[in-house]
User: What shape does this take?
Amino acid sequence: MGRERVVVVGGGFGGLNATRALAGADVDVTVVDRTNHHLFQPLLYQVATGILPPGLIAPALRSVIKKQANARALLADVHDLDLEQKVVRAEGPDGRPLELPYDTLVVAAGASHSYFGKDQFAEFAPGMKTVEDARYLRDGILSKFEMAELATDPQERAEWLTFVVIGAGPTGVELVGQVAELAHEVLPQDYRSVDTTEARILLLEGTGAVLPPFAPKLQRYTKERLEKLGVEVRLNTLAVDMDHDSITVKGPEGEETIRTRTRIWAAGVQASPLARMLAEKAGVETDRAGRIPVNPDCTVPGHPEVFAVGDMVSLNKLPGVAQPAMQEGRYVGKVIKARLAGEKSPAPFKYFDKGSMATIGHRAAVADVFGMKFTGLIGYVMWGFIHVLYLIGWGNRLGTLYTWARALWFSNNRGHRIITFEKANDELAEGTTRAGRPTPILPRSTPGAAAPPAVSPRDADRTG
Ligand SMILES: Cc1cc2nc3c(=O)[nH]c(=O)nc-3n(C[C@H](O)[C@H](O)[C@H](O)COP(=O)(O)OP(=O)(O)OC[C@H]3O[C@@H](n4cnc5c(N)ncnc54)[C@H](O)[C@@H]3O)c2cc1C
Assistant: This one.
């Protein structure tokens, strides 16, 4: 009989930690992921706002596990988990079918955006979950400043300069803080016709506070700090409709339509469709977020050889953040090793809560660590330390520190602001979705087109 075959679906926080926990074990591990990298999602917002290049937060999966002789990585999209035949079915990038037989299966396929049943919003309000999403957002945000520079009509310019982020969880807060810094601190000197400090930046939150899971003191601090950065925070406010040029919101003062070309979705997540597939095959129900309930040892009910971890599972009411996924992944590795050694299974999974953090711009953060609350620069330093520590590889850690020092502290610039005419054109095309590109809206030569303003409106404003 050959070695035990372990297939791990997903090379994110859960899958990678399960794989690494099996280093040295007498097993063959195959990690299959639809991307070739391990993504550190907590820093994605920095890619979306031009601070970090993607490579620093998304090292190639096969390089991450290169020293682990019993593990290999495959780039493929998993579409079937056959629990009867014990086979994972996937498709290679060219469509070739792959069959991966297993003795033990670990599914850690994460989550994606949820538009709470309003899937039509996806076309107008992209979310941020992958490297491509972050690049797409970055191109979109930067293109809007370029269009504002070209616009001659003040109303049109105001629309290009209005940014709406939907959802004030950590992702929304971090992203909106950086957009505000871009507009108010980084870009003003780079533009001639437009005053980027005129940008209107809104953060919408459906509940009564920003950072809903955090302590009230940290929520109040975050709201005040965002307002100081020039962000309009709208609480108890929902996005009820949107199109290419506007968003309609419903808040305490009723409905209002805001003219804007940029809406960013940071409001909800939905477990990977593989969670539902597993649940159906195991005969259990998923929860409202599409997560599969698992046993206290992270196994799928009725299938001791199948584990599921991370954002796609519901276990002990744990939040969908990195630490539960990492700890569950490591725990599953231990359970598999114990089984191989014929030892008793470890005690049920127990989560060790290390706290939560979020940045507000690049000089302040809130941190709730072991029951202690930190704000401001202290919170920011703690946030920076922890995030660098959890990046993979010394090269990426040092590269990130260097890039932060250069971009945020010494030059107050953003080094990764590359867009092209084609990118901007793609971003701005009406009705665009990333799946299907429509006709370009920027003709290469437009007879009689308005020239960019000769006199800077911002100077004109100053002189009245
Ligand atoms: C923008 C953003 C910011 C965040 N910030 C924080 C933070 O500050 N702190 C924090 O603790 N948490 C944060 N999180 C949450 C955290 O990143 C997740 O909880 C964590 O990544 C979950 O790990 P996972 O292994 O379950 O899923 P993931 O890390 O998402 O990994 C899932 C993997 O599965 C792969 N996959 C999915 N479907 C398939 C398929 N069909 N076939 C093959 N491969 C597949 C994906 O490509 C991916 O690599 C953030 C998340 C986002 C999106």
